[in-house]
Amino acid sequence: MNEDILHRLEQLETRLAFQDDTIEQLNREITAQGTETARLKAQLSLMVKKLKELQPGEVASQEEETPPPHY
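The chain above was modelled as a monomer; its predicted structure follows.
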């Protein structure tokens, strides 16, 4: 009976070690994704700011645009 309990305890310890490793891997991935998300948000904010700064004369209105060649 003791051997059975020891075997089960070893199995649980092994599973726990694998779970700890998986949690650490997932944590690293989430951290990396958070960093990438923050970088992309900063880029998007910069792009929005630059678009807002454009002078209206620099972008032609839809009526002023020449139609594509297939028209």
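DSSP finds one helix and no strands in the chain.
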